[in-house]
Model the fold of this input.
Amino acid sequence: MLHTFVAYVEDKPGVLTRVASLFRRLNINIVSLTVGHSERPGQSRMTIVADAPSNAGGQAGDRIRASMYKLDDVVEVDDIGRSPSVTRELALIKVAATAANRSHIFELVEVFRARIVDLAPDSLMIEITGVESKIEGLIQVLNETEERVLEVCRSGKMTMRRGKHSTGVLRAMGINGPEPPKPEAVQDNFADNI
Amino acid sequence: MTTPEENNAHLSNSITGPTRLTGAEIIWATLVGEGVDTVFGYPGGAILPAYDALRKFPIHHVLVRHEQGASHMADGYARASGKVGVAIATSGPGATNLVTGIATAMLDSIPMVCITGQVSSKVLGSDAFQEVDITGITLPVTKHNFLVTRPEDIAPAIRSAFQIAKSGRPGPVLVDITKDAQQASATFDFAAAKPRPYNPHPMLSVVDSGLKDAAALIRASKRPVILAGHGIMQSNAGEQVRTLAERMQIPVGTTLLGLGSFPASHPLNLGMMGMHGESWVNDSIQQADLLIACGMRFDDRVIGTPATYALNAKKIHIDIDPAEINKNVKADVALVGDLRQVLEQLLPLLPGRDGSAWLNQIAASKGDAAVRDIKNLPDSGHLYAAHVMHDLWRITEGRAIVATDVGQHQMWQAQYYRHDHPRTLITSGGLGTMGFALPAAIGAKFASPDREVWCIAGDGGFQMTACELATIVQEKLNVNIAIINNGYLGMVRQWQEFFYDKNYESTPLVSPDFVKLADAHGIPGLAVRDRGDLEAAVQTARGHQGPFLLNFLVEQEDSVYPMIPAGAALHEMIRRPGSNASHNPLLERPEDQ
Ligand SMILES: Cc1cc2nc3c(=O)[nH]c(=O)nc-3n(C[C@H](O)[C@H](O)[C@H](O)COP(=O)(O)OP(=O)(O)OC[C@H]3O[C@@H](n4cnc5c(N)ncnc54)[C@H](O)[C@@H]3O)c2cc1C
Ligand SMILES: Cc1ncc(C[n+]2csc(CCOP(=O)(O)OP(=O)(O)O)c2C)c(N)n1
Ligand SMILES: [Mg+2]
Done:
């Protein structure tokens, strides 16, 4: 089962290793990991998507989060779970294309709301942002056409919780109501104070 | 001990405010500021500047014979005292030799600070002589670690290391300091190097509803059991646990590391749970309708298999580490926080209770299991390890600090030496590190110089760190050593007997004459073959001023009972052979049960 965590960590050498090493030690595969500066001075922001084995039970998210907090350089961890959030990934895709067959790719790029950011005599580069499925969709379509995909570079997911919207807005956005209720206290009385 | 004159010569006395010092001096000045008076270490090139500055500070350095000994001694010191133990080593092989001791401390949550020298920052990463990436190597076995390359960062790093080591769930921290940082100078300001205040884990919170739920479960339960763990010692909550047990009349089982946290002689004490715990303790857990886990982490040696563990019981799990909640056993109520504080909040909600029915039921279920013990070992005058433990307990009146190694003797110690007081059993539980006993006993003796200290080791494990005998002599330490000599790597032999068709591959063990080995160190010793000689030998050792070694030549193919085989449930344990006197425990096999 996939879990998405957003973590604020000290911007120091070795912190990425510590976080990555924790997942390795727990034998949990990191599906994607992005790091960059955050709005807080001296702290970086990570989005980590991890695939926890299903035998870890529904509590895997809590355990991973609790274990991350044990790292001295980790300041804050949010388990996004299924709460309303915006997720984006950026991909650069280089495709073999000549003047003769370029126009077909232009059409695809249009449909996927992507952009051409480089054009060479025998190749072109596409930039696309969106959710994972959108990026995978484009890659798949490209693969199914004549054009050869030469290179793919993906950023990995970046995730941010949505702001506090009224229920009406959420419904308009196609999201059901506010955050799903917390599991009952007996199961999980960790303070969710983040 | 230093004389007042010598003390005056100490540089540390002249440091009152910010002072210009070398990095090497800052290391010691910071340790003095943290209240350290004893460190365990071994010198080498990359830490030599620090050693050069040592004489200016009121710190006693114990020269070990192998750096593994240094980390186990710091660990033993911490376990006996509750304070942070300190080990020091040079770069490269010195640092890697510490690792087993660091991992041992990590698994048992022992507060420890290790300081290692590192090659100069200018050559870091160049495969310089004796360069290893020790912060990389110890990353998964430390609570945190630091690489320090500038003298001004030394004091803040060491002060943070102490804070991290002892706060929350304790653990080892390593500070790796480059040689040039030790040689250069900086302004030392102890007060300014104070780490930012310890923030309790953000997931740490005891919600009122949790307390109420826990109280309701306890009040409603008919068959409750308290599971007493190591965390009781670490939180200093022995009194609160005792109040809980006595007021609510709840029986108490302890983990290996929890032994001593609740008095063994207390009428509500059942004994040790788990793989080699007594059958009635494990049976009570399986029958219980409520388990109250106090500072214990449901280790796999304690629960058998999660799928079969205490299926009838609700679980209240009190632990300071949220990552332990729901790890091996699902908690119905989790109270995350310091045990003592949690119990202080919980106890007012618990007025009292009559627990006699359940207590009587347990007493009855003990049946002949309770007498299938030491008293039923064939009394041919022949020496069994159980005799040694039992008599040591009797003769020392259970007051000694006992450091054990790992193996059969460790389990017999746990079963037959009854610990009434906290911090009297020093043993490696989580990592099960052979070679632990002797150095850990040395560390414990430094922590409690006025206490009687015994090292109890197997013939195998003793040989892993026997070099520390010389340390005992150099330090003029009064540590008594009991070797439980069964001629085998006994615990492994037992597994081969039970599960590998008695194929005793690589477990018979040829050992030196341990009494002669002691003699070569100037330590007197005695070999003991018969039970009749046991008491006199122990008294000789106790009466001797200085270290003494007893080589107990015990029954060779004896096994530890009861035993939960790997993958079995608690109630499926291999029981102790029956009380039939003609029954030979040596021939006991699981199928016979
Ligand atoms: C050969 C061998 C056989 C063994 N057989 C057995 C056996 O039969 N039975 C047995 O019990 N063990 C056995 N063990 C030991 C076992 O492996 C574990 O080490 C032991 O069970 C752990 O005990 P614990 O959970 O009490 O302590 P720890 O592992 O030290 O855990 C302590 C817990 O307390 C928590 N804690 C710490 N401080 C606080 C605080 N201030 N407030 C609240 N909580 C706190 C920690 O977070 C942690 O979860 C054996 C080991 C060996 C080597
Ligand atoms: C460093 C290390 N290596 C191997 C083991 C595996 N092991 C556990 S118990 C044991 C046998 C210990 O033999 P001995 O010290 O003679 O004690 P006994 O069991 O005979 O009392 C071994 C090899 C271990 N725990 N630690
Ligand atoms: Mg042996």
Summary: Chain A touches chain B at residues 14, 17-18, 21, 25, 57, 59, 62-63, 65-67, 69-72, 76, 185-186, 188-191, 193-194 (CB under 8 Å). The longest strand of chain A covers residues 85-96. The pocket of magnesium ion (ligand 3) is lined by residues B 458-460, 486, 488-490 (CB under 6 Å).
